């Protein structure tokens, strides 16, 4: 029957929330055992379960039960859904993290059970980014089940609809009409009757989820006896024990007319975008570090035979994916859970550091850096560097990004001069080091040009002075002003705010009022999640009493430090301008001591009819400038019509390396820096023993990038990656080697195509290169991988993700695969 009710037996189980993962681990075993018992007791019962991580725990700790589950999966009564490692937060992980959830989750299910999930399943996540339809489709999932946002948070014409992402990918999506559980006091029959009325009105079947949940449990004997009575009363064909797989298969066959929704599924729990800053910073760092480790491990394997550390890197990714569980990534678990998260991120970061270092050192050791003057290694000249006579010390700079970069690099010594691999001297600047070792407290800053996904050797000379080209327009840092050829930045002396940000290329004032203003928001009315709220705008104060000090005066870099205070909290912002760039970088150190308060940095952009665009996983989205708290990733942009003229559009992009929450009200953008709710406070009884989040020190960076025209043509995506993924360096000495002193690893002809991942294929017979289109415009591009002797062309649709499999055998063609690395269409 078209309007039948599909009863979905499930056991919602948060592995971490008001308990630690060890308790979740035990509860998984008990819940799975209970589900197997129900399968034995009730011949028509069907159980639905997601999360590959849970199955891994059973496999390693209860192997007999695992074998029993395998037989039930083969029978079709234990239905695997989800296809991801865990039920993650669906806003804050990067696009590549979602790809890894699919890669490791779906391949685990395929390897262990011979199936892959057809239904995406995130019934408890707090929101769902607008690129998920493409990420799901390219992971073998044509359907999606979710619950939030609920109907009072987002109006939908119907709970069953086609969900479409910007690239045109579609999945059939179903929003639960009510909760995924039926704990004590919930009547299954009343729930079914409500859903039956909806089914009659909509003209198609509905799903009703049942089973004890949140701390596991699942369907009970009482649940199933109640359902048997309902089947007798209403008919077995009308009330069926089912699964999401069966539900969507029947709906797809029936082909009802469904609305199409091309939007994100938001907003729920807006405070989760900015809770527990440490975990969010660690997440961003770990995502990028593991990608860097994979890229250079692949290069080192191909060029110099270093074994590829596949198992180690997968373990690190599993830690990161587990910490992306929505109650960890969303920052709403107990304090003890975040100590566990710290340890898991630490292991992932350490694995990333070790594998990256092994690859870089193997590559750098294989570069031919020998000089004719050198007969043997000796440290007679200096105790730190291996420089022989005046021939210089080789310093290898690696660029993990998929385009050539020109960036400032710091060598942690004081040098008289530096040259590139061809002997051309480059401009340098002596800058303060982090050490204070007697007189040895200086480093050397220089500008490096490094090839895409490659490296370049620079030669550092301790005493030999080589004339470098003069800088045409050095940075000036005087009193409260920073200026280069592109920007002029003026800072108010006593407030520390930016009073003027002038784009000298167009003579445009980019701010309509003071910028980088640290505003304090009252959030006593908010629980940890931010339930029931749309925004945080109850302003109660500002950081003030600023001290402004020039730290560096150029020529390559100028820095002004602003230190301000609010109550017992101290905010230090180092405003940094480099001679070559039209962007203002800011390094922030915050000592936060507030409770039930939030810190935002405010930037009123001098445009009219503003449009706000945020980066989302493997894409971007335009949202209304209505002051609502929204999630973003590495950048947000506010663009509009120029205020003072009819010269068209301009805007200001705000990039960051650790933050995820924003709001934009008309032309004012506010980046959420920190908030300090109580741990795991769901409007509980607040007493003197509660503990508050994010007390103490944290550091992060952001950049302000003015631009003329739209953000797409201003290189915003690339600049955000450059802030988040700086070059990596290795000190070397003199040795023969098969590699040259400069390596171009990748060339992509279209600037709007970014490559994020280069790794060994999971099946071990080639390499994987993943790219995506960043501007929302289709493009034809050529891709060249010189180290693999490969060149091919591909057409990208707007916001399209493409994964290329490059066989070891050069006679075999490059082919496109999906995110699971299966042939497209499988």
Automatic annotation (TrEMBL):
Pfam families per record: Alpha-mann_mid, Glyco_hydro38C2, Glyco_hydro_38C, Glyco_hydro_38N
CDD domains, per database record: GH38N_AMII_ER_cytosolic
Gene Ontology MF, one: alpha-mannosidase activity
Keyword Hydrolase applies: yes
InterPro entries: Gal_mutarotase_sf_dom, GH38_C, Glyco_hydro/deAcase_b/a-brl, Glyco_hydro_38_C, Glyco_hydro_38_cen, Glyco_hydro_38_cen_sf, Glyco_hydro_38_N, Glyco_hydro_38_N_sf
Family: Belongs to the glycosyl hydrolase 38 family.
Keywords per UniProt: Glycosidase, Hydrolase, Metal-binding
Name this protein carries in UniProt: Alpha-mannosidase
GO BP term, example: mannose metabolic process
Signal peptide range in chain numbering: none
SMART domains in the record: Alpha-mann_mid
Protein's organism: Paenibacillus rhizovicinus
Residue span(s) of domain Glycoside hydrolase family 38 central: 268-345
């Amino acid at each position: 029957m078209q309007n039948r009710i599909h009863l979905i037996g499930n056991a919602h189980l948060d592995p971490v929330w008001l308990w630690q993962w060890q308790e979740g681990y035990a509860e998984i075993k008990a819940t799975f055992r209970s589900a197997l018992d129900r399968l034995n007791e009730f011949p028509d019962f069907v159980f639905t379960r997601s999360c590959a991580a849970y199955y891994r725990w059973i496999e390693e700790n209860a192997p007999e039960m695992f074998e029993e589950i395998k037989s039930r999966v083969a029978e079709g009564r234990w239905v695997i859904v989800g296809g991801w490692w865990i039920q993650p937060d669906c806003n804050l992980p990067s696009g590549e993290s979602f790809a890894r959830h699919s890669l490791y989750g779906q391949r685990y299910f395929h390897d262990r059970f011979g199936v892959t999930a057809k239904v995406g399943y995130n019934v408890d996540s707090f929101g769902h980014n607008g690129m998920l339809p493409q990420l799901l489709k390219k992971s073998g999932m044509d359907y999606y089940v979710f619950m939030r946002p609920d109907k009072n948070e987002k109006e939908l014409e119907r709970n069953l609809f086609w969900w479409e992402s910007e690239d045109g990918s579609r999945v059939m999506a179903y929003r639960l009409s009510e909760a995924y559980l039926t704990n004590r006091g919930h009547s299954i029959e009343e729930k079914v009757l409500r859903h039956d009325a909806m089914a009659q009105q909509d003209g198609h079947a509905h799903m009703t989820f049942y089973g004890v949940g949140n701390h596991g449990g699942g369907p009970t004997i009482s649940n199933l006896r109640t359902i048997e009575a309902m089947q007798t009363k209403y008919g077995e064909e009308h009330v069926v024990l089912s699964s999401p797989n069966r539900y969507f298969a029947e709906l797809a066959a029936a082909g009802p007319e469904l609305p199409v929704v091309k939007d994100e599924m938001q907003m729920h729990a807006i405070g989760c975008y900015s809770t527990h800053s440490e975990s969010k910073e660690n997440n961003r760092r770990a995502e990028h570090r593991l990608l860097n480790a994979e890229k250079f491990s692949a290069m080192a394997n191909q060029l110099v035979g270093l074994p590829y550390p596949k198992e180690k890197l997968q373990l690190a990714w599993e830690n990161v994916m587990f910490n992306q569980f929505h109650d960890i990534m969303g920052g709403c678990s107990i304090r003890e859970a975040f100590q566990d998260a710290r340890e898991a991120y630490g292991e992932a970061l350490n694995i990333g550091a070790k594998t990256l270092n092994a690859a870089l050192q193997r590559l750098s050791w294989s570069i031919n850096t020998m000089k004719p003057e050198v007969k043997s290694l000796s440290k007679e000249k200096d105790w730190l560097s291996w420089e022989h006579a005046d021939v210089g010390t080789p310093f290898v700079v690696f660029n993990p990004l998929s385009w050539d970069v020109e960036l400032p690099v710091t060598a942690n010594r004081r040098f008289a001069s530096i040259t590139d691999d061809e002997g051309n001297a480059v401009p340098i600047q002596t800058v303060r080091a982090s050490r204070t070792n007697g007189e040895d407290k200086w480093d050397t800053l220089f500008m490096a040009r490094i090839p895409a996904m490659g490296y370049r050797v620079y030669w550092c000379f301790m005493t030999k002075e080589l004339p470098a080209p003069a800088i045409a327009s050095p940075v000036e840092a005087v009193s409260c002003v920073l200026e280069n050829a592109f920007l002029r930045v003026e800072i108010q002396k006593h407030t520390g705010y930016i009073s003027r940000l002038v784009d000298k290329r167009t003579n445009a004032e980019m701010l309509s009022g003071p910028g980088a203003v640290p505003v304090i928001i009252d959030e006593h009315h908010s629980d940890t999640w931010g339930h029931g709220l749309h925004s945080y705008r109850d302003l109660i104060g500002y950081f003030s009493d600023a001290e402004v000090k020039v730290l560096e005066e150029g020529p390559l870099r100028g820095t002004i430090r602003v230190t301000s205070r609010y109550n017992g909290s101290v905010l230090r912002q180092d405003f940094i301008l480099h001679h070559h760039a039209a962007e203002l970088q800011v390094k922030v150190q915050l000592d936060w001591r507030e409770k039930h308060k939030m810190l935002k940095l405010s930037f009123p952009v001098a445009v009219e009819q503003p449009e706000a665009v945020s980066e989302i996983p493997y894409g971007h989205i335009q949202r209304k400038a209505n002051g609502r708290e929204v999630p973003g990733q590495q950048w947000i942009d506010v663009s509009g019509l120029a205020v003072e003229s009819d010269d068209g559009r301009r805007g200001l992009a705000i990039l960051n390396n650790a933050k995820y929450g924003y709001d934009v009200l008309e032309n004012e953008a506010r980046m959420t820096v920190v908030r300090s709710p109580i741990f795991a406070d769901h409007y509980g009884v607040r007493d003197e023993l509660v503990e508050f989040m994010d007390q103490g020190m944290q550091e992060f960076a952001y950049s302000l990038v003015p631009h003329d025209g739209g953000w797409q043509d201003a290189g915003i995506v690339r600049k955000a990656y450059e802030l988040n993924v700086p070059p990596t360096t290795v000190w070397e000495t003199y040795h023969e080697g098969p590699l040259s002193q400069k390596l171009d690893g990748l060339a992509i002809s279209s600037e709007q195509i970014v490559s994020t991942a280069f790794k060994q294929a999971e099946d071990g017979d080639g390499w994987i290169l993943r790219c995506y289109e960043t501007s929302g415009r289709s493009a034809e591009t050529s891709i060249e991988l010189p180290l693999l002797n490969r060149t091919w062309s591909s057409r990208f649709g707007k916001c399209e993700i493409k994964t290329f499999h490059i066989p070891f055998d050069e006679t075999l063609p490059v082919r496109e695969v999906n995110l699971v690395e299966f042939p497209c269409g499988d």
